[in-house]
Amino acid sequence: xxxxxxxxxxxRTGASRLSLLEDFGPRYYSSGSLSARDDARDARAYFTTPxxxxxxxxxxxxxxxxxxxxxxxxxxxxxxxxxxxxxxxTGTDEHGLKIQQAAAxxxxxPTELCDRVSKHFxxxxxxxxxxxxxxxxxxxxxHRVAVQHxxxxxxxxxxxxxxxxxxxxxxxxxxxxxxxxxTRQLGPLGDSFPVSLESGHPVSWTKEENYIFRLSQxxxxxxxxxxxxxxxxxxxxFHHVVLQWLDxxxxxxxxxxxxxxxxxxIPVPGDDSQTxxxxxxxxxxxxxxxxYPNAEFKSxxxxxxxxxxxxxxxxHAIYWPxxxxxxxxxxxxxxxxxxxxxxxxxxxxxxxxxxxxxxTCLNRYTVDGFRYFLLRQGVPxxxxxxxxxxxxxxxxxxxxxxxxxxxxxxxxxxxxxxxTYPAFCTTCFPSEPGLVGPSVRAQAEDYALVSSVATLPxxxxxHYDNFQIYKALEAxxxxxxQTNGFVQRHAPWKLNWESPVDAPWLGTxxxxxxxxxxxxxxxxxxxxxxxxxxxxxxxxVSASERNLGELYFLPRFxxxxxxxxxxxxxxxxxxxxxxxxxSRTWLVKAHRT
Length: 593
Ligand code: MSP
What we know:
Blueprint: H1 2-24, H2 36-40, E1 45-48, E2 52-53, H3 60-79, E3 86-93, H4 97-106, H5 110-127, E4 134-137, H6 141-156, E5 160-170, E6 175-177, E7 182-186, E8 192-196, E9 204-213, H7 219-228, E10 233-234, H8 236-247, E11 253-254, E12 256-258, E13 267-268, E14 271-276, H9 278-283, H10 285-288, E15 304-309, H11 313-326, E16 334-338, E17 341-343, E18 346-347, H12 358-365, H13 367-377, E19 384-386, H14 388-411, H15 444-465, H16 469-490, H17 502-524, H18 529-539
Parallel strand pairs: 1-3, 1-15, 2-3, 3-4, 10-16, 15-16, 17-19
Antiparallel strand pairs: 5-6, 5-9, 7-8, 9-11, 12-14, 13-14, 17-18
The structure holds 5'-O-[(L-methionyl)-sulphamoyl]adenosine.
The site of 5'-O-[(L-methionyl)-sulphamoyl]adenosine has 19 residues, from strand 2, helix 3, helix 9 and strand 15.
Enzyme class: ligase
GO molecular function: ATP binding; methionine-tRNA ligase activity
Subcellular location: Mitochondrion matrix
């Protein structure tokens, strides 16, 4: 019975997902803009971060998770005309044994600890420009309603039964572990204690009567879902890992704890002696935000992209889709997985004293600078190591020197005395490469530049779709270098506005460079919103001209009018990104042997 309905459901899911993806695929004119069809698209998109545990203050890893989701949702908003069609949620995960124990250790009531740390996250995200539309706390009444309703649906579909669970539980990771995933670690006094093989956190043996979810029934439906949707989990290696996990046995899952042991949570409806397992509670946050159980949630589900760290893949790629299928719903459309930040090669932890405070970093490197660093250096497939010299070096070279220098070179009064977007001369830079004539000045490398920048928006969009934001930034940075090369090659400072021979070419060189800068500014908005705003304002690009749909790069080259030609530049507001002083004492120095 269940098998058949699951199968039917998967069939439907597959079809609707396909058409949605088709609608989502970016299409660009050759000049690098979104096509009219793409512009008209009104499909909804819902991005989520994991909700963060409130047992300790946020660190740069948490900020990284939120930034990835922020950049994806900002990029999505830039693609479409309707910002109302995008939602982006984050929040705090406040129940469970981990929080109950942390509050007891701190001598606080759990609500006090939750209020305090949740506020830290909210402040950090506000300072870091995280453009979430919703911030959820699992201690809110609306969430309790959603979780208890979801529980009721699973129960009514015969998927919960009572049984005895006996095994290892890791409170830090809030998960059950089979014997094979537990090892022994030596304590300071030579005594040994059991820990999780994966996380190294202590585990304890539990035996209690709980509600159990029939997870084992979902092994094949999950395999079919993943095989039918090869992009469901991105990057691909994580998709592969989940399929490998599903090759193994998938035991049923305990989804409640005795309330006498775990009181800090949502009670099982109709049975106060049991508290709902914190992961089931936490995962339902994604539905609470969009109004579940009211029907309005259906317009956002399953057009959902979950952004998560690799440590919580099993919960999102196995438990969550299984719960959803069990409740008669589709799995989320995309799960984007990222790796972790280490500090000088070590895992960040309070006990090692190497936790990097994101607020200090935002102050030191500016909000845009630190956002750029984390997103430019963070590679989803591998862990990344943090140290301060790396930040200074990257920001000085890419934002201050390359991008800031380029803007300065094209807008400085001595080179551009009229402070306008100069005219493009089609005789100096004909659209057909290889033409010769007395006024043709463009060289082969210049055509290569135009072609690189024209295809950049599409390349960037593809990298965003594949969750390779660092590659998108790498591509922008490479085009910035190419544009600097173009300016260097033609040395506009050696050309003379007064000379009828030089002037059209001088204007063209500046026009092309400004057009490139306009593309870079537009594409950098999801990552460095203020810096991009400063850049685009300096170029005189108005707010309504900053969408990807408006990004017609170098239209004069393609034979179209250019709305910017002859326009006054915006006011000069100082250096785009002031250089950082490398001689300052930093938080974290690289280890040198
Ligand atoms: N509360 C759960 C998530 C529930 S979602 C329904 C949780 N919280 S967490 O606070 O421990 O982690 C939140 C996110 O931060 C996860 O995506 C995790 O991978 C990420 N990070 C935690 N440490 C990190 C690094 N050192 N580096 C990068 N991201 C890291 O898990």
